[in-house]
Design goal:
It contains one helix and three strands; from the N terminus they run E-E-E-H. It is an alpha+beta fold and 73 residues long. Strand 1 and strand 2 form a beta hairpin. It starts with 6 loop residues before the first strand and ends with a helix.
Length: 73
């Protein structure tokens, strides 16, 4: 995970293929899985899903943060 990023994704091998996870840095040492998809046949497929889903996840998170900021005003 790149230093300074709160959200990122990783690709991990499993029994039935590859899985992709969107991860969040909860603290300096602790990582929390926010979203996970299993069953990819190859690492490349999981990589593509992770990149695409991270963008969607970030957009949803930004929209949610803006909405909450408006309610605080």
């Amino acid at each position: 995970m790149t230093k300074g990023k709160k959200f990122d994704f990783r690709v991990v091998p499993g029994k039935d293929g590859w899985s992709a996870e969107i991860i969040r840095r909860a603290s300096r040492q602790k990582m929390v899985v926010s979203k996970r998809q299993d069953g990819f046949a190859s690492e490349a497929e999981a990589q593509v899903w992770g990149e695409k889903e991270l963008q969607v996840f970030s957009q949803n998170q930004n929209a949610r943060n803006k909405k909450r900021a408006e309610t605080r005003k």
